[in-house]
Fold:
Amino acid sequence: MPGVGPKRAELLRKELNVRTALDLLYIFPYKYIDRSKFYKIRDICDADTYVQIVGEILDWNTIGIGKSERLSARFFDGDDEIELVWFKGTKYLKLERGVKYLLFGKPSVFNHRWNFAHPELEPFDRVNPQLLRGLEPYYNTSEKMKSSWLNSKTMMKIISHLMPSLSQGLPETLSREVLDRYNLMNLTESLKNIHFPSDLAHMQKARERLKFEELFYIQLQLLQQMKSRERDTVGLKMPFVGRSFNDFYFNHLPFELTDAQKRVVREIQADLKSGKQMNRLLQGDVGSGKTLVALLCCLLAKDNGYQACLMAPTEILANQHYETVCHMLKGTEVRVELLTGSTTKKRREQIHPLLMGGEIDILIGTHALIEDTVQFLNLGLVVIDEQHRFGVAQRAKLWTKNINPPHVLVMTATPIPRTLAMTVYGDLNVSVIDELPPGRKPIQTYHYTNTRRDAINNFIRGQIQQGRQVYVVYPLIEENKKMDLIDLENGYRYMVEQFPEFKVSMVHGKMRARDKDAQMQRFASGETQILVATTVIEVGVNVPNASVMIVENAERFGLSQLHQLRGRVGRGADQSYCILLTKVELSKDTRRRMDIMVATNDGFRIAEADLQLRGPGDLEGTQQSGLPFELHIASLSTDGQLLEVARNAARDILDDDPLLEQDKNDIFRRQLQKLKQRAVDWSAIS
Ligand code: ADP
Ligand code: MG
Structure:
């Protein structure tokens, strides 16, 4: 290709994964600037948009000395003048009087006046007239590329060389039917217009088509996977509602189920009856009562002669589930056991035969459940709590614990925006508990800077004197583990000093499981009033009497984590509080995170905000599951509507032709094949 020698080819491959001309066509501009419009100086009003102005240079001077030395020129458009400044690279600048220039740049304000810093300046008669006809594409380039002169402008030039060859047309990747039905631009036109749109409308049509295609193939892949799994696996049949369920429901249930809980139990029940293997995601905000739903489902499994297991991501949580479940099932005939990493060898040896003999109905535990030595007589239901903490592989392992795979219910406490649920978890059915148990008082959240410790300590004291308990949480991340542990221990000592009249306990992930458990117990039983902890208590922990959550260094937590932590309080009848402590100087994003936390308790709103702020790649839990294919142009945070259209389109096709065997669907089958091939190739490289 013109403009691409071996060095550039290598750079393109390394930096953008571009190997062929076709790959290059799929490097899309991230923005466009309208070069058909000319401005006058007096119309400048916005510092954030590029403008171009025709005019001449009146004169120029070097002003300032040393670091602040700069070149200043007066630019005149026939009516008004404006200052242009250059701080560096002035050697290369050849300014001339009496020449008509095209100026292009972003205006800025300096000393209350508009100016241009480092504008592009080109003699007007040397400007390519082609450029001035429409929208100029801008491409992302890496530092490495820029330093080899492979900047956006060069990219544009290289890609423009490909345009003539497009006139022969590229093989279409969507069927005529789909193009017509959804009113989409064809592939060739789209690729032309994504790079060099003739106008705004064409650019938008091109973008829409290319986004649609990406989302469509992801959905086609996910839905096909789901369908083939439904077809190929025999679902364990659980048609009965029997004694265990009814006895518990009518005689032991400590409270009335919320309507949402009832609805979700019915949805799950329908799956269990259906004869198809269930793969369901149960979403519900923190405190919405997912554990109880899980327990009811386990009882349904028992009533049909099957065992169930419940897997939690931490020992603390597994222990707590075990205690809750035992407590609730007291007086029933259901047999429950606990298996975690710290279960003794002796105890394990007792549990294994009981499990094989079918004498345990519900096994609760951690990753320890996955081990090969753990064998069930007849495992029928697997519940995975806080599923974002587990990888896909770990989930899959539980499938193999029965000849026919058990039903799977995964629960997540961090609500997931709809768009993510439809993609990252697109092959699961989704149930939502969208209602909290009655009588909860909304948690009050405050953001303070850590200069306000005295006031906060007084507040803590007042709360404890009223009989409440308090969490104090510190961040702990792997990369900074040593410092973080020191912070935590200092924090612990500080609390002990500040509150000599109260008892303080401490837990962190590096403690022995036994000690951790003992400390948790002391807090849960009310023996200690303050618990200083790392995020080991982030998920699931339930101590209803604790009503204050203090988050130290809150700026270091993401939104979903903050929401999780806050969910540890507000579980009893008392008014609860969450106090986010940060340093004084905050970035814009951090400030926004704090504002959102203060503004809302709604996990779904927070999840949406998180998606907007961070983008889907960073969302907790999405890294492991991932998308079947990469997105280059569509965005899960902003293209929700199009995603839904694409999902419906894919579903319609598969409903009619699940294996894509019909001739008219050949195009989809081949394109899917190609995409899968590519996904594998690339993952092998990176
Ligand atoms: P999560 O959905 O965050 O896992 P949990 O299952 O831990 O929530 O439930 C939170 C608290 O709400 C627990 O103390 C539980 O006993 C209580 N709870 C659950 N369902 C109801 C209900 N229908 N009415 C009243 N309290 C409930
Ligand atoms: Mg929970």
Q: What stands out?
A: The pocket of adenosine-5'-diphosphate (ligand 1) is lined by residues 255, 257-258, 261, 284, 286-292, 413, 437, 542, 544, 571 (CB under 6 Å). The mean pLDDT is 89. The longest strand covers residues 51-63.
